Each structure stands twice: as C-alpha cells, then as structure tokens.
Amino acid sequence: MRVYKFGGASVRDPDSVRNVARIIRDHGGGPLVVVVSAMGKTTNALEMLTSAYMGGDTAGMEKKYREIRDFHFAIARELFTDPRHIVFDVLEQSFYHLQYYIREKPGSNYNYEYDRIVSTGELVSTQIVSHYLNDTGVANRLFPAQKLVITDAHFRDAHVDWILTPRVIKGKLNPYLRPARETEKPSIIVTQGFIGGTSQGFTTTLGREGSDYTAAILAYSLEAEEVVIWKDVPGLLNADPKLFRETLLMPNISYQEAIELSYYGATVIHPKTLKPLLKKGIPLKVKSFTDPESPGTIINQNQEHDSLLPSYIFKFNQVLASIFPRDFSFIAEHNLSRIFSDFAKHGVKINLMQNSAISFSVCFDKDPVKTPALLRDLEKNFTVKYNTGLELITIRHYEHASTEPILHGRELLLEQKSRTTLQLVVKPNEPQD
Ligand code: ASP
Ligand code: MG
Q1: Of 26-35, 126-135, 143-152, 325-334, where does mean pLDDT reach its minimum?
Q2: Which atom of ligand 1 has the smallest separation from the CA of 41?
Q3: Of all protein residues, whose CA lies closest to atom 6 belonging to ligand 1?
Q4: Helical H runs in 158-230?
Q5: What pLDDT does residue 356 have?
C-alpha cells in the first residue's frame, strides 16, 4: 500500500491533471491512496474570498467567487468533452453550496468560517481528478477526508485525534484496499489533503500546506510501504532555487535531519509530516512530477548522508530585539520567565535567542498584530531595542560552506554556532520592509 500526494502545482491546469493521471496509471499496481490539494493558487483565492466575506466587501467577494468558479469550470471543460458529464453537476452543486453560504451573514468566528469556505478548494479539485481518472481507465473511489481525518474544533489549525483517526481510516479504507477475492483488483482511493472534520461533522483544516500531513496521517494509519510527494522540484534541494543560482539535490537524508531542516524554515515538506512516518519507519520520497522516472529524494532512517552537504535556509521579515532589565539585574530565571511568558502570551515563536549578563536577544518573525502587542508588554518591565527588516540565515553542516558570498551586501548582527548549525541574523543593505 502506498500513498501519493499531489500538491496544487501538480493540478494547476488540464495538462497537469492529465500528467497526474499518467503517473497514477503507471504506479506499478498494488493498492494506492491518492491525496490531492486544491488546484493551483485556489487556496490563496479562497482566503481572499473569506476575508472579503468577513469584512463585508460583497463586491470583492462576488468577484473572487466568480474567478474561482470559472477557473474550475474552464479546467473541467477541457478535460471532459461531454457537456452533460456528471462532473459538471457535481461542480455546480459544490459552488452553489458555497454561494448560498456566503450570501448569509457571517458568524463571528473567523477561523470557523475560513475552514468552511477554504475547504471548497480541495473538495472540487478531488471531484475533477477522481472523475478524470475514472474516465481514463483508472478506476477509483473518492472518500471525503472530513470523515477520515478526525480532529478537534481548533479551526484553521486543527489537531488530529490520533486514537480515533487510524481506527476510522482502517475501518473505512481497508475493505477497498484489500480485495476479498484474489481475482479482484486492489483499489485506488482518492481523498482531499489539508481538510479534516470534527466528530460533530464540522469541516476543519490542518494549516496551510497541510496536504503532506494528510498523506502522513493516512500512511501511518494504513501502515503504508511508502509515501511519495510529487512536486515541481527534482527532490529536496540544499537551498531554495529562487534564491540560489546553483543548488544540489540531496538523494537521501534521515527523518531527524528533515525534521531539523523544516524546523529551521525549509518549506519543501510540511513540518508535521515527518513524525508519524518516523514512528512507523515509513519512507518518504520527494519526486518530480515532470520527471517521474528520476529517483528524487528518499527520507528514511539512514543518517549516513546527512552531513555531506550544507543546506541554506532563509527566513525573511525578522525582528531582532535586545531586552534589558530596567533595574540593572542580571538576565537570570526571574527575568527569563517574564520574557518567555510574554512571548507565550502573544503566541510568538522564538527563532533564535542569545543572552549575556545584562541583555537577552531574540529573533522572531514580524507580525502586524502580534509584534506591536508583544513589544508593548515587554516594555512594561524591560528596556527593549529592536531592528526590523532582517533576515535569519541558517546553514546546516556549515563546515562545508563558505559564508562570504552570503554575507556580501549584508551586515552581520548576530551569529550563533552549534556543532552542526550556524545561524546568522543579518541586515540586508537594501531593506526588506
Ligand atoms: N491547498 C492547501 C494550501 O495551499 C493545502 C496544501 O496545498 O497542502 O495551503
Ligand atoms: Mg499547496
């Protein structure tokens, strides 16, 4: 049993959907669960629709609704030549539900409304993909993820119920994946990434880019042989190709290394994805959907190759704050606990910290709402000096790296080294904000 995950870029237009169908057709037999994200940039568009809806901008909302609807119908019209195909009724129904919903006045819980609306992206993409597969000889069954991934009601960042979910997934999917008779072909199942549901039947989402996580939840529950994430890059690269002219493919790294990379901000795999796979020893492959034959990257138990290449991870829009006790006391438990409780209160994650006898320096993401509120609270007890518009550069296995080209055009404000990781807080000569 394997799990394939296709992200938004892999289903962004009719040709990409055809390509996905080819990859599934050539999967080599055996039971398969296919997890599909919303098409192209649909989730972003639905987020805009949600904020227009919540903000009472009816014209903006209607415009976004039209765009999203037209985008999906245009793709469907190219994939299904018969205008009476059932897929058009199904799409019509999904969009009618959405339109009906947004005509009513919104409730006050933004995140609840968000999940209700934004989940439409995955619901319509899977309808199109599943029907297209069926029509092109890849028999499959579509299962709604709201009934498979059981979560709490923490809308927009729902937590999976790890007791119920594997039980439900096994109970519902195994009868299809393991045919009763030898003559029957094992099935292909299609489901939505990113979305789940509460036991009460409310739709939830798992956080942006959460479809990888869905693939891991399914693989964990069904004890899959492997998970393949199909992407528009050849595998895991040691730097973002948008930032670096030359990047190298990492053919094999360990779960632990991949967890570290995503912790420091590497965005190729959703950070929650790896732990369930690590727990069951299920390998994760990252492969290119434009070059499905090439091996890509495999993430497994093997730590042998972890330190062969340096990896570069950039975080932009950083704040570096230096915090000084007003009463000239030293930075010790009492002051630290006050500082940390302010960060916890405002939900601000610390990306890097360093202390001296009389000051404590912290680097964190700038947020239009959280940052000013945090600084206001800190300033009640401390003197705070801060810089914004900074970058945090993390270099894993820096022993093979040269920092000179990276520091070119940047002023180094703070440096921190461990045995494996070098972190630099820098100020670009051209300010970021
Ligand atoms: N469609 C969702 C998003 O764009 C989930 C995903 O793609 O993984 O964030
Ligand atoms: Mg995506």
Answers
A1: 325-334
A2: 4
A3: 209
A4: 164-177, 211-222
A5: 87
C-alpha to C-alpha distances, 411 to 240, 387, 388, nearest whole angstrom:
21, 12, 13
Atom of ligand 1 nearest to the CA of 209: 8
Work out the angle at residue 175's Cα, subtended by the Cα atoms of residues 173 and 180, and round it to the nearest 5 degrees: 155
Mean pLDDT of 54-67: 97
Residue for token digits 């991934």? 149
Helix (H, G, I), strand (E, B) or coil at 133: helix
Q: Which of 8-22, 209-223, 389-403 shows the lowest mean pLDDT across its residues?
A: 389-403
Secondary structure class of 62 (helix, strand, coil): helix
Query: How many of the other CB atoms lie within 10 Å of CB of 367?
Result: 15
Tokens representing residue 217 in the block: 């939840």
Q: Which of 11, 16, 37 to mutate to test the pocket of ligand 1 (most atoms within 8 A of CB)?
A: 37
Helices marked H in 55-119 — which ranges? 58-79, 86-103, 110-118
**Strand ranges in 301-357 using DSSP code E only, listed in sequence order:** 311-325, 350-355
Does residue 183 have a pLDDT over 70?
no
Residues 34 and 214: their CA atoms lie apart, in Å, by 10
Q: Which two tokens stand for residue 200?
A: 């009460």
Ligand with an atom nearest the CA of residue 121: 1
**Mean pLDDT of all residues in 133-141:** 95
Residue nearest to atom 8 of ligand 1 (CA): 209
Residue 353, beta-bridge partner list: 362
CA–CA–CA angle 254, 257, 263 (5° rounding): 140
Virtual torsion, Cα 354, 360, 361, 365, nearest 10 deg: 110
Beta bridge partners of 284: 227, 299
